[in-house]
Amino acid sequence: MALAHAVSDDRTADGITLGDLLRRVAEYLSLERQELIAAAYAFADKSHAGQLRKSGEPYVNHPLNAAYLVADLRLDAATVCAALLHDVVEDCGVPLETIEHRFGPDVAKLVDGVTKLSRIEWTEASAGVLEPKRRLYRNASPAENLRKMLLAMAEDVRVVIVKLADRLHNMRTLDALPPDRQRAIAHETMEIYAPLANRLGIWQFKWELEDLSFMYTEPEEYREIADFIAASRTAREAYVREAQAILEAELQRTGTATEVSGRPKHIYSIHRKKLKYAEQGKDISQIYDILALRVQVSTIQDCYSALGTVHHLWRPMPGTFDDYIAMPRESGYQSLHTSVMALRGQPLEIQIRTKEMHQVAEYGVAAHWRYKEGDSKDVKLDEKLAWLRQLLDWQRDVQGAEEFVESVKTDLFADRVIVYTPKGEIKDLPAGATPLDFAYRIHTDLGHRCIGAKVNGRLVALSHTLKTGDVVEIMAGKGERAPRLDWLNLNLGYIQTSNAREKVRSWFRRRDRDESIDRARELLKRELARLGITMIELDIARLFKYEAVDDFLAALGYGDVNVGSIAAKLAAAHEQPVQAAPLPAHGGAVTTPSEPAKGLRVMGVGALLTRLAACCHPVPGDDIIGYVTRTRGVTVHRANCPNIRNSDEPERMIRVDWGSGSQMYSVPVRITALDRVGLLRDIATTVSAEKINILQTYQAAQPDGTAQFLLTLETTGMSQLSRILAKLEGITGVTSASRMMEGAGAAEA
Q1: For residue range 160-181, what is the model confidence (pLDDT) as tens digits?
Q2: CATH for 665-748?
Q3: Are 289 and 342 spatial neighbours (Cβ–Cβ below 8 Å)?
Q4: C-alpha dihedral (407, 411, 414, 418), degrees to nearest 10
Q5: 3-class SS at 72?
Q6: Which CATH code is given to the segment(s) 230-366?
C-alpha cells in the first residue's frame, strides 16, 4: 500500500487519526516500517468493519489509539503493528497464520501473546464491542490470570506493554460503561495494571492509570483534590516560573549545562501525600512537594554539581534527600531527589538527572527499544528485567495461584528498601522486610539455618524492620537446621515477603503429616487458651472450609494456615448477619430486631439499652449472649462466662449478635515474665506500637524472680487482641500473655 493513500485525518473520539500515528512513527522509523504500520491499520479497519464500541464509535478507533500510545513510547514497528491487530484474532476470527503471512512472525507472536492475555483477563475490562465477544476466561481466577500475564511478560515484555496501552485507552473511555463496571475495572487497574506499569518503569502509563482509576473508585476524594489544584494553579505556576528562572541563572553562572522545567504532581500522588500528612496531623494545604522542578544535565558528575548549587542557593529540608543514582530503584529509575525551603520560605521539591536517566524514568523498559528497529534492542535489557527472571524462579516453588499473587503484590509491587551484604553486594527487598527475608533472599539454606542477625554491626531481633542503607549480616547455625513454625505467624512479624514464607512452608510440607498434626494441635490449643476461647476443633476447621479436622491441622502444621488468622476468622464469622430465632417471652418484649448502641444487634426485643459485662469483657469474635436485667437493659456476656453458666434464670437469656458498629473494647490481660530491668518499658512500648491504649496496669514481683502484670487494654476486637498477645509473648523474658476470664481481675488487683 502506498503510504500517501493510507493517511487519513478523520478524527477519532480521542482526536487521534491514522495520519497522527504515521507522523509519530515517522520520527524514528524508516519509510518501509511506516508502510507496514499503514498496512496493519488497513487490515484492522477491514477486519473490525461494522463493529462498534459501547460509546457508539467504530471499534477500530480503539486499536488505533492503543497503537498511538505504543508509538508514543517509540517502540519498534512490530509492537505498533501488534497494537493495531491485537483484537482481530479474538474478535474477528482472523487466523493467526494470516497475521504471520502478511506481517511476519514477530508481529504474529506478539498478537498471539496479547490474544492469550485477553482470554485470561479476569474482568470484562474492554469498553468493548456491542456484538457478543468470544470470552474464554470466565472460569479463570484472578490469581491464575495474573500468573499467566507475568509469565507471558517473561516471554516478551512487549506483549504486556501492548496490554498496558490497551488498558489505558479503555480507562480513558470508561464512561461508556455502567457505574458498577466502571468501579470494578478501575479497582482492577489500580490493583494490577498501574503497579505493573510502575514496575516496568513506564511513568507515562503509571500516573494516568492511577489518576483514572482513582477518579472512578473514589470520585468525591478525586474531585476535592482536583478542585484544590485548580484553585491554586495560577499562584503555583507563577511561583514555579520564578523559582525556575532563579535556579537556571544560578546553574548557568556555575557553568552547569542544564535544562530546568516545572514538574506536575498528579492527583493520585497528591492523595497519597494527603493520607501520609493526615497521620501527622497536617492538612492538604501543607503538602510541600506539590511544587516541583526537574533539572536535566549532561553527566552524573553534573548531577551532583547541580545538587550542590541547589543546596547553596536554598536551605535543604532535613530527611528529604534521596540518591537514586547510587541506589537505583528496581525499575532502573535514577535521579537525585531533594526538597528545599525556597522563595519566601515555601518548600520546593527538585529532581536532578541526566537526559539518559530521564528517558528511562519516562519510558522504563520501553526506552530500550527507542530508535531501534527489528531485533536490535538494547543488550542491557535483560539486566533491567532481572527481577522478572527471579519471578520465574519463585513461581516454580509456589503451590497455588493465590500464593503467587500474594508473592507478586508483596515482593514485586510493594515499595522497596535497598540493603547491603557485609561484602557490599546490593539486595533489593520490599519495604518492611526483616533479616529473615534477607537471609531467604540470599539462599534458602541460609534462611533455614538463621539463628540471629546483625544490622550495621548491632545485634537485632529477627523481626527487625530493615531500612535503606542497612548492612545486614546473618548468623547461621552449623549443620542442618529447621525453620520455626512461628516464623509464619504474621502477628509476630518475622517474615514479610511471600517468597521467604513459601520456602518455610515448603520445608514443613516435606515433614511427616502425623508430626505436623500433633504440632498444630498444640499450637491451636495454645492460641485458644491465650484468647480465652473454648471451641471444638471441627468448628474452627469449618471456619477455614475444612470438613476434616486432620486436614485442617495438617494445613496449620504445614504453615498453609496461619495461626494468627484464627482470631480474624472468628471475628469475621460473628460479623455475619443472623436471623432472629423464636425466643422466650420477656414481659412486654416485641419480636423485631433492634440495632442498639455500641454496634450490638439484639434479636427479639425492642430498643433496649445494652452494656458489656464487666465480669468477662466480651469483644467482637467472642460467642455472646444477652442477659435481660430488671433495671439496666441487656447486659452482654461471653457465652462461656461463669456468671451466665451458673444462672438459675434461663428465661432472662436473649440472643445477641455483634453488629456492624465500631468501638473500643476493654480487655483484661495477664502477663507472666522473668523479672528484669526495663521489662515494663518494653511491654508499654509494644502495646503503644500497636496503637492500643492501656486503661489500667498492676505489677507484682514474685519471690521466685518472676513478675506478673495485669493490664486492661482497649482494643478493636479479637484480631487486634490476638496480634498484641503474640507480640507480648515475643518480648524477652515473657513466658505467657493471655486474656483473663474474670474481667475485674486487673481492677481488683
Answers
A1: 889 899 999 999 999 888 888 8
A2: 3.30.70.260
A3: no
A4: 170
A5: helix
A6: 3.30.460.10
**Percentage of the residues of the chain whose pLDDT score is greater than 90:** 16
Contacts of 400 (CB under 8 A, 6+ apart): 143
Q: What CA dihedral angle connects 522, 523, 526 and 530, to 10 degrees?
A: -170
How far is the C-alpha of 381 from the C-alpha of 366, rounded, in Å?
9
What amino acid is encoded at 301 in this protein?
Answer: Q
Instruction: Give the separation between CA 598 and CA 689, rounded to whole angstroms.
Output: 26
Spatial distance between the Cα atoms of 333 and 428, rounded to a whole number of angstroms = 13
Of 361, 530, 527, nearest to 540 by C-alpha is 527
- One DSSP character per residue, 493-546 reads TS---HHHHHHHHHHHHTS-HHHHHHHHHHHHHHHHHHHT----HHHHHHHTT-
Strands, E, within 329-479: which ranges? 336-341, 347-354, 416-420, 426-430, 450-455, 458-460, 472-476
Distances (CA, A) of 281 to 271, 284, 685: 15, 10, 22
Domain residue limits, the chain: 3-217, 230-366, 386-509, 513-563, 665-748
Return the CATH number of the domain spanning residue range 386-509: 3.10.20.30
CB of 77 within 8 A of CB of 37? yes
618-626: average pLDDT: 79
Q: How far is CA 564 from CA 60, 477, 534, in A?
A: 52, 27, 17
353: pLDDT strictly greater than 90: yes
- Structure-block grid coordinates of residue 467: 531500612
CA dist 624 and 640 (Å) reads 8
Active-site pick, 20, 45, 90, 527: 90
**How many C-beta atoms lie closer than 10 Å to residue 648's C-beta?**
5
Per-residue exposure over 343-356, b if at least 16 CB sit within 10 Å of its own CB, e if not: eeeebbbbbbbbee
Mean pLDDT in residue range 722-729:
85
Mean pLDDT of 274-289: 67
Task: Say which of 45, 87, 91, 403 is annotated catalytic.
Answer: 91
pLDDT of 662 reads 59
R_g (Cα) of the chain, nearest Å = 31
| pLDDT at residue 42 is higher than 80 | yes
Distance CA 620, CA 625 (A): 12
User: With 80 as the cut, is the pLDDT of residue 559 above it?
Assistant: no
Place of cell 498478537: 111
Cell numbers 541563572 correspond to 249
| pLDDT number for residue 372 | 45
What are the pLDDT digits (tens) for 387-415?
555 554 544 444 444 555 555 555 555 56
Pairing mode of beta strands 734-739, 665-674? antiparallel
Query: With the C-alpha atoms ordered 365, 371, 375, 379, is the resulting torsion angle positive or negative?
Result: negative
Q: Please name which of 402, 444, 319 lies closest in space to residue 140, comparing C-alpha atoms.
A: 402
Q: Please check the confidence at residue 474 and state whether its pLDDT lies above 60.
A: yes
- Angle, helices 31-47 vs 96-103, to 10°: value is 150
DSSP letters spanning 561-599:
S-TTHHHHHHHHHHTS--PPPP----TT--SS-B--GGG
Alpha helices in 156-193, H assignment, sequence order: 157-172, 179-188
Which residue, among 135, 50, 34, has the nearest Cα to 84 in the 3D structure?
34
Per the annotation, the verdict on 91 as an active-site residue is yes
Enter the C-alpha cell of residue 318: 532535613
Task: Tell me if residue 242 is catalytic.
Answer: no
User: Judging by DSSP bridges, how do beta strands 653-654 and 336-341 pair with one another?
Assistant: unpaired
Superfamily of structural domain 3-217? Hypothetical protein af1432 (1.10.3210.10)
Q: Is the pLDDT of residue 82 over 90?
A: yes
Confidence of residue 67 (pLDDT cuts 50, 70, 90): very high
